[in-house]
Amino acid sequence: MEDRTQVGVFLGYVLDPGGKWSGQYYVAALEAFAGRPLHKRTPPSKCKVHIQRVREILPVTKADIFFPLRGTYERCNYTLEGIEAHLGKSRDAVNHDLPPDVVPDPAQLFQAPQEDENDGPNNDHHEDDTTPVMMVVDLQPTEQDTPKPKTQQR
Fold first, then answer.
1. Cα 77–80–86 angle (5° rounding)?
2. pTM of this prediction exceeds 0.90
Protein backbone atom coordinates (compact mmCIF):
# COMPACT_ATOMS: atom_id res chain seq x y z
CA MET A 1 0.00 0.00 0.00
CA GLU A 2 1.30 3.44 -0.94
CA ASP A 3 2.03 5.98 1.82
CA ARG A 4 -0.33 8.92 1.26
CA THR A 5 1.20 11.18 3.92
CA GLN A 6 2.35 14.56 2.60
CA VAL A 7 3.99 17.63 4.08
CA GLY A 8 1.31 20.27 4.26
CA VAL A 9 0.23 23.62 5.62
CA PHE A 10 -2.56 23.72 8.19
CA LEU A 11 -5.16 26.30 7.13
CA GLY A 12 -7.94 25.85 9.68
CA TYR A 13 -10.72 23.73 11.13
CA VAL A 14 -13.82 22.55 9.28
CA LEU A 15 -16.84 23.68 11.30
CA ASP A 16 -20.38 22.34 11.21
CA PRO A 17 -23.40 24.65 11.43
CA GLY A 18 -23.48 26.21 14.89
CA GLY A 19 -19.66 26.44 15.03
CA LYS A 20 -19.11 22.85 16.22
CA TRP A 21 -15.86 21.25 14.99
CA SER A 22 -16.53 18.49 12.49
CA GLY A 23 -13.33 16.57 13.25
CA GLN A 24 -11.78 17.64 9.94
CA TYR A 25 -9.01 20.09 9.03
CA TYR A 26 -8.33 22.32 6.03
CA VAL A 27 -4.80 21.73 4.68
CA ALA A 28 -2.84 22.40 1.50
CA ALA A 29 0.21 20.55 0.27
CA LEU A 30 3.42 22.51 0.85
CA GLU A 31 4.34 21.80 -2.79
CA ALA A 32 1.30 23.83 -3.89
CA PHE A 33 2.95 27.03 -2.59
CA ALA A 34 6.11 26.55 -4.66
CA GLY A 35 6.46 29.48 -7.07
CA ARG A 36 3.36 31.26 -5.75
CA PRO A 37 3.77 34.92 -4.84
CA LEU A 38 3.40 35.51 -1.10
CA HIS A 39 3.22 39.31 -1.13
CA LYS A 40 0.21 40.50 0.89
CA ARG A 41 -1.14 42.57 -2.03
CA THR A 42 -1.05 39.75 -4.56
CA PRO A 43 -4.51 39.24 -6.08
CA PRO A 44 -6.23 36.07 -4.82
CA SER A 45 -6.44 34.73 -8.37
CA LYS A 46 -2.64 34.33 -8.39
CA CYS A 47 -2.53 32.56 -5.01
CA LYS A 48 -4.94 29.71 -5.61
CA VAL A 49 -3.94 26.37 -4.11
CA HIS A 50 -5.90 23.15 -3.79
CA ILE A 51 -7.35 22.98 -0.27
CA GLN A 52 -8.11 19.52 1.08
CA ARG A 53 -10.27 18.37 3.97
CA VAL A 54 -8.55 15.72 6.06
CA ARG A 55 -9.42 13.89 9.28
CA GLU A 56 -5.91 13.31 10.58
CA ILE A 57 -2.78 15.43 10.90
CA LEU A 58 0.51 13.76 11.85
CA PRO A 59 2.57 14.36 13.98
CA VAL A 60 0.94 16.57 16.53
CA THR A 61 3.69 17.35 19.07
CA LYS A 62 4.66 20.97 19.76
CA ALA A 63 8.23 20.28 18.60
CA ASP A 64 6.91 19.33 15.14
CA ILE A 65 4.97 22.56 14.59
CA PHE A 66 6.79 25.09 12.40
CA PHE A 67 5.92 27.75 9.82
CA PRO A 68 7.42 26.80 6.43
CA LEU A 69 6.11 29.88 4.58
CA ARG A 70 7.14 32.46 7.18
CA GLY A 71 10.66 33.23 5.92
CA THR A 72 9.52 33.70 2.32
CA TYR A 73 6.49 35.75 3.41
CA GLU A 74 8.65 38.09 5.51
CA ARG A 75 11.19 38.48 2.68
CA CYS A 76 8.40 39.35 0.23
CA ASN A 77 6.65 41.84 2.52
CA TYR A 78 9.30 43.31 4.80
CA THR A 79 12.40 43.77 2.63
CA LEU A 80 13.03 46.35 -0.07
CA GLU A 81 13.99 43.62 -2.55
CA GLY A 82 10.72 41.76 -1.95
CA ILE A 83 8.57 44.86 -2.34
CA GLU A 84 10.42 45.91 -5.50
CA ALA A 85 10.00 42.41 -6.94
CA HIS A 86 6.24 42.58 -6.29
CA LEU A 87 6.03 46.00 -7.96
CA GLY A 88 8.08 44.74 -10.91
CA LYS A 89 10.86 47.24 -10.30
CA SER A 90 14.53 46.42 -10.39
CA ARG A 91 17.04 48.41 -8.39
CA ASP A 92 19.10 48.90 -11.58
CA ALA A 93 16.12 50.00 -13.69
CA VAL A 94 14.71 52.64 -11.32
CA ASN A 95 14.64 56.03 -13.05
CA HIS A 96 15.54 58.83 -10.65
CA ASP A 97 15.15 62.55 -11.26
CA LEU A 98 18.60 63.25 -9.82
CA PRO A 99 21.73 63.19 -11.96
CA PRO A 100 24.14 60.35 -11.23
CA ASP A 101 26.75 60.96 -8.55
CA VAL A 102 30.18 61.85 -9.89
CA VAL A 103 32.77 60.06 -7.83
CA PRO A 104 36.11 61.90 -8.00
CA ASP A 105 39.38 60.09 -8.26
CA PRO A 106 40.46 59.48 -4.62
CA ALA A 107 44.04 60.41 -5.51
CA GLN A 108 42.87 63.94 -6.42
CA LEU A 109 41.07 64.59 -3.12
CA PHE A 110 44.18 65.67 -1.23
CA GLN A 111 46.20 67.36 -3.97
CA ALA A 112 47.35 70.92 -3.65
CA PRO A 113 45.38 73.47 -5.68
CA GLN A 114 46.87 74.25 -9.08
CA GLU A 115 48.08 77.78 -9.77
CA ASP A 116 46.18 79.60 -12.44
CA GLU A 117 48.08 81.71 -14.93
CA ASN A 118 45.37 84.37 -14.69
CA ASP A 119 45.90 84.89 -10.96
CA GLY A 120 47.17 88.35 -10.17
CA PRO A 121 50.05 89.38 -7.89
CA ASN A 122 47.89 88.76 -4.80
CA ASN A 123 48.06 85.00 -5.30
CA ASP A 124 48.93 83.53 -1.89
CA HIS A 125 49.50 79.97 -3.15
CA HIS A 126 53.02 78.65 -3.53
CA GLU A 127 54.24 75.54 -5.25
CA ASP A 128 54.97 73.84 -1.93
CA ASP A 129 51.39 74.33 -0.58
CA THR A 130 49.80 71.05 0.51
CA THR A 131 46.40 72.41 1.48
CA PRO A 132 43.89 69.56 1.26
CA VAL A 133 40.88 69.94 -0.97
CA MET A 134 38.62 68.30 1.64
CA MET A 135 38.21 69.61 5.16
CA VAL A 136 37.01 67.72 8.25
CA VAL A 137 34.85 69.76 10.59
CA ASP A 138 34.05 68.83 14.18
CA LEU A 139 30.27 69.03 14.53
CA GLN A 140 30.15 68.40 18.29
CA PRO A 141 28.28 71.19 20.10
CA THR A 142 30.33 73.31 22.46
CA GLU A 143 29.19 74.84 25.73
CA GLN A 144 28.57 78.12 23.93
CA ASP A 145 26.26 76.39 21.42
CA THR A 146 24.24 74.53 24.08
CA PRO A 147 21.38 76.65 25.46
CA LYS A 148 21.31 76.88 29.23
CA PRO A 149 17.98 76.35 31.00
CA LYS A 150 16.40 79.54 32.25
CA THR A 151 15.60 79.72 35.93
CA GLN A 152 12.78 81.85 37.22
CA GLN A 153 13.42 84.21 40.08
CA ARG A 154 10.69 85.05 42.51
1. 55
2. no
